[in-house]
Design brief:
It is built from twelve helices and 18 strands. The two termini are 23 Å apart. The relative contact order is 0.12. The strands form four sheets. It has a nine-stranded mixed beta sheet with strand order 11-10-9-8-14-6-15-18-17, sandwiched between helices. By secondary structure, it is α/β, with parallel strands linked by helices.
Length: 375
């Protein structure tokens, strides 16, 4: 990591422009998998000449789009980019080559790309071409923003966020299964925004049976790529008449199931447009880690899990929850209601999964508390 001992006035401008690049990158979350969402801002003589975010579907990358906007103003300019520019030939030419060819004078990078094809090599190529490179400005923010991309590369699975909507005493449904709606309309709108920022939304077969959800983002214009819907359904119990299967030809629908299901049933799902992904069995259904790894191999970097209680318990038992988005209503149901997570074997306080609160914001009359796994 380079020393960021630069003049104060320049440092303030650097922070301002990198924050703008990060804001751009946040817009692309959930849109560009398997690629990371990268923001790029090009500044020449104190004026923003170009700006871009990774395009939906992952191509083109942010840097060539911003360079095209800047045109000749890119020569001698400073480029602020939230992730190290790529330096390998894939479906698009290397971004390092584009920056060098454009004649930029300086590149400020927030975080390194841990992809083994890059991982510092992009910065080395820029420096070898005589470009001044500053590394590490707002690195923590940039790594947090693309935590899904880093989790997929480092651990072979997507970042997992468990979304809960419950009463104050942690109940998600009455004893007879009534759950719509515990939270109000503002909270539900925020939940749809959460869906938009994730590559995939996942639910268990029990939730699909009880609620018949479509698991899409229904905020107009917020998500430009189809939402991937995933169901953990070991024995293919999902009804072929459900909303998920009925719309599988237009919205990607993946079913995580164990091997050995009826061939005719498998064919029916295929004809409906759903993809059945076979994974190993586990005592309570499927091997969730293997399921997430299968999703990562298909490019998923961020998955929002929306329940139900059995799936939440299985994830917590397997230590697969990275973040929690908990919508809690100002109401109390009592012990005869369904808990947010079924029993998963905690015997002592020391064995409880622990999380750190990052934020708590109002959602109408409800609250959204966002937490991350404790270090």
């Amino acid at each position: 990591m380079e020393d960021l001992a630069i003049p104060h006035s320049l440092a303030m401008h650097d922070l301002e422009h990198m924050r703008s690049a990060l804001a751009l990158a946040r817009r692309g979350l959930g849109q560009c998998w398997p690629n990371p969402s990268v923001g790029c801002v090009i500044v020449r003589d104190g004026r923003v000449a170009g700006r871009a975010v990774t395009a939906p579907g992952g191509r083109p990358h942010a840097e060539p789009q911003a360079l095209a906007m800047a045109g000749e103003a890119a020569r001698g300019a400073t480029v602020y980019v939230t992730l190290e520019p790529c330096c390998h030939h894939a479906r698009t030419p290397p971004c390092t080559d584009a920056l060098i060819a454009a004649g930029v004078a300086r590149v400020v990078v927030a975080a390194r790309d841990c992809d083994p094809r890059v991982n510092g090599e992009g910065l080395s190529r820029l420096r070898a071409a005589g470009i001044d490179v500053t590394e590490g400005l707002l690195r923590a923010e940039a790594e947090d923003l693309n935590a899904g991309f880093f989790t997929r590369l480092r651990h072979g699975r997507p970042l997992v966020t468990l979304k809960l909507a419950s009463t104050l005493d942690g109940r998600i449904a009455t004893s007879n299964g009534q759950s719509q709606w515990i939270t109000g309309a503002p909270a539900r709108a925020m939940a749809h925004a959460l869906r938009a920022r994730n590559d995939a939304v996942m639910a268990g077969a029990g939730t699909v049976h009880a609620d018949n959800p479509d698991l899409t983002c229904r905020i107009a214009g917020m998500k430009s790529v189809p939402q991937v819907r995933v169901v953990a359904d070991s024995h293919l119990r999902t009804p072929l008449t459900s909303k998920l299967i009925a719309s599988a030809h237009t919205n990607p629908t993946w079913i995580l199931a164990t091997a050995g299901n009826d061939a005719a049933r498998l064919e029916a799902f295929a004809q409906a447009g759903a993809t059945v992904i076979e994974v190993a069995a586990a005592p309570m259904g499927i091997d969730l880690l293997e399921g997430f790894r299968a999703m990562a191999r298909r490019g998923i970097t961020r998955v929002l899990v929306e329940g139900g209680a059995q799936l939440a318990a299985a994830l917590l038992r397997a230590d697969l929850v990275d973040r929690i988005a908990w919508f809690h209503a100002p109401s109390v149901m009592g012990g005869d209601g369904w808990p947010a997570a079924q029993a998963f074997g905690v015997q002592t306080l020391g064995h409880m999964p622990r999380f750190v609160r990052e934020s708590a914001v109002p959602a109408g009359d409800d609250m959204l508390t966002e937490l991350r796994r404790a270090a």
